[in-house]
Amino acid sequence: MSPRRAVFLINLLQDVNIVRPLAYLAREASVRPVFLLSQRFLKRDRKGLWRDEVERIAQEIGAAVHVYDAVFDAYQHLQGGNGVLIAASESDLPAHVDTHEVFRAAPASYLKVTLQHGYECVGFLQSRQHDLSHGRNVRFAADVLAGWTPLERQRSMPASERAKYLFTGATARIVLPDESPRRRIPAEALICENLHSVRFTAEGDHRDAFMEMFNGFAVAMRSADKRIALRPHPGGKRVFDLSGAGPAVLREEAPFYSLDLGSVAYGVSPPSSVVIDLLLADTPAAVWRDPAGDMDADAYAGLHSVSLPGDVLAFRRLALTSREEVLERQRRFLADCGLNKPVEAVRAAFLDLLGGARPAVRTTAAPPTWLVAADAVAATQTISFVQPFAEQTAPRIAAIGHDESWNEPAALDALWKQHRPCGLVLSRYTRSAGQALIDKARAEGVPVVFHIDDDLLAVPDSLGKAKYDYYNQPERLAALKSAMNAADVVYASTAPLAERLKQHGVVAPVIAGDIYCTVEVPDAPGPGRDAGPIIGYMGTGGHGADLDMVLPAITTLLDEFPALRFETFGTIKPP
Known about the structure:
35% of the residues lie in helices and 18% in strands. The strands form 5 sheets. Strands 3-2-1-4-5-6-7 form a 7-stranded parallel sheet, sandwiched between helices. It has a 6-stranded parallel sheet with strand order 11-10-9-13-14-15, sandwiched between helices. By secondary structure, the protein is an alpha/beta fold. The longest helix has 17 residues, at 207-223.
């Protein structure tokens, strides 16, 4: 058999930074490193900077470098080999197609590993703006998803992918032996941008607000005779004209791994993995967000934030006069997120992968049980879940009504211990505990389905004042929509309802079955049912207005056909 290989797929410019430590680590694992570069990578690298970096790394570690255009080109390089296939940006999103399709076609002799390529990474941990732009159903073709934090922190990972997850830690934590000294940055501060990100455009354009902050801060620093460095994102397309800034602002485009981030007194960046790089370098860092607070920066809660030039100047004073206080706050953040995984543990996890170790797959104990939670178990849950699965040995259905204690961790632990569900269904669930149930499901690695058979986001007053008031409470509407958006999939009873939910702004995937609430049809009519045709109407008391719409037609038919009968069943009152 041919020697084991570690094949690194490079597609986006920032991929080089993520896979570089593993390329050097491959030598320690006694596997042969190989770089496969997509043609799109070369087109994105307009200055040739990152191609030169790959060639330099390859020369140092004795790696081969190949370029592929079509999937078949990459397959030819993989055919006949074995080892591990690693990508830093792989998913079913269009931007990752060059790696995703290679993973799908790769020979089974390779262990396919997708690396988390950022702290907030599609399919791992997404911001609200990511959800709006990419949805919450990102899929991977990998065998292993290597992530930066414990699984419970990866709130955006679909349940079907969570069994692949391995908490390795970030590759940035790997310290390379005999590495050349990093170059100092000749500036007091490092200001980073990622203006191409959907974070700036998904809910309004916040790029001008960032530039106003940057220009205002640059003017203040020029007056103080201080220098700042601007760091454009490697994959960004923004062109900055710094000709009028003079020596006060310099452009710093070198790879991060070649820079000494500890040489600046502090750094500022919009929500980005750059913030984590600064934290790991023990450099005071502030997170920029737009002045209106529209930009989702919740994943960085606990760190200092800035918006206006004055905010940055205030943070500068704090970083210069109370540096240790700022750093202690940042260290607590890293510890809370699990981003401070020991360096040796990170190395060991990746050495195992490079050596071919296949992590154990998470399994669910038998018999599998789906937990169906509802405001109250009623007809909807009975005909949708209880009856269809009544004669099934697996999966079983455990349908339960809302309990006020579900917002408490102890109560949820007890609930999970009792049922050990393999999946969670929130059926027409409108209570605030929906998020707590979803968080528990995420922590346990089980899928979440939101089931709905009425447009509860727009209940009309024709259903009666009681139902109208009940479902249109602002807190109930907010809890309902939040739970739907947090689910892996929303299951609507009909296709028109699915479309209505999308129009209401539901961003989770919404599906509808071809047939809803199926039952077996009797072979022959029951006793006494052969006297003539019958029109039947089934419904609850809230559907009186629906029946009123068709009563004139039913009345006409009953007058024309004396043998015809009309019957109601359910809790609706006969007309």
